[in-house]
Amino acid sequence: MQVDNAVRSYGLHINGHESPPGTNMVDRHSPATGRLVARYVAGTVEDARAAVEAARTAFDTGTWPHLSGQDRSRILNRLAALTRRDAEQLARIEAEETGKPLRLARGDVAASIGLTEYAAALALTMHGDVHTNLGPGFTGLVTREPAGVVGMITPWNFPLLLLMQKLPFALAAGCTAVAKPAEVTSGTTLEIARLTVEAGVPAGVFNVVTGRGSVVGQHLAESEHIDVLSFTGSTSVGQRIIQASGVNSKRLSMELGGKAATIVFPDADLTAAVDGVLFGVFFNQGECCVSGARLLVHQDIADEFLSAVVSRARELAVGHPLDEDSDIGALIHAEHLETVLNYVNIGRQHGARVLLGGARLDSPELRDGFFFAPTILDEVTPQNPAFQEEIFGPVLTVTRFGTTEEAIGLANSVEYGLANTVWSKNIDTALTVGRALHSGTVWINTTIDGAPQLPGGGVKNSGYGREMGQVGFDEFTEVKTIQIRTGQREPFFR
Ligand code: NAD
Questions:
Q1: Which of 101, 135, 321, 407 allows an S-S link to 95, with CB 3.0 to 4.6 Å?
Q2: Cβ count near 360 (within 10 Å)
């Protein structure tokens, strides 16, 4: 795996082969330094069609869906071991292409390995039910089969991790797949494709076509040869995909945007809560679907709590992704930096007060990259667009509440429902609020936590379907009921 200062050049990965890089390439410049770091093919509709055909053939006539769970498990464990072998290089590629700190990218790789090992275990335990209490001579088998060809479309904020929330689970179930990574961060997806070959995944089972969403992604959404489309990305693109995918009633799993709240009650461990609020919003530069972008803090502790949050936020190191000391890296590209800045300005126009940051960082060391200061906006009303809309940057909005009901109402008053966090040491408060929040995940006295066994996903405009855990695996299986009558049965018509 090549990770020195040379430019990485990739082809497309179709039917077990990587094509040579072509003439129509997408150049990826580091968002931190502007240096050209990688080049990927701008795939065409014909490329996407060829990849889908390879996956379809591998599913319909290949061995993969019929391998024993033990064989699939063995191959997935090999993939996990190879990912572990190449962990440092994968983390570096991820940091260079996304702008996130290398330290955090290592965490993404470790989590991806954990997901692969967990999925390997699920391959062993894929089984159905036998019903023997249906009356004499009547037996029912409820079986689980691989769902077919899976299209996987992923965004740029966690290119590796979000792929691995899908791929090992689909492979464990016996599905074949075509992945379309985000156009600016395709490196680790293509590296994983190379590792699947090394691990022994047969040709055609996993294919990758890079390029534009409106070309390659759109084809996957429209293709009638795809059975399941698993999408992670923005709500607006998700809605376009839902419309385009109707052609063959394919099953959809939609992991869309979010606007999580972090609710802090006076009886919380406030030191831990300050730490959680900062990690919740500034992790991955705030480019995180479950980012705790809205702080709801009880009015009795608000001033003191905020002053602790601001002073700790000042200590965070914004810096180069490959610098081991960086806490916060660069935003993904110039347009996104403009969007974040624009939201801060709109927030101010709607009455917000800037407690910290609010602008691009342009010191000599950071001038070549898209670095944005950790930003805290106080006095943000629920009507403020900065409160309602996904900013997807290092921007925390602060709103005070008086009662528990008010906190719940504020948290639920947005169109999204991906995740929320509650800080309280009172079990009654924590659980009552946790149960009343409209989101696929609630963290209590922790945030942006997880384990491969625990599913994630959204409600409302954050989408539907779940990834990870047993239910995430089940999304890649189809239930078939087989009903058997034995012995002499009564005729249907007399
Ligand atoms: P995006 O929606 O712009 O792009 C996501 C993917 O869709 C990319 O690969 C893109 O090329 C592709 N795409 C674009 N247009 C398409 C089309 N017409 N048809 C098919 N595919 C198309 O999202 P992004 O900007 O890359 O990522 C940020 C968004 O992702 C945020 O809204 C964030 O909340 C969301 N996200 C959600 C989760 C989750 O688990 N719910 C996780 C991470 C990110």
A1: 321
A2: 17
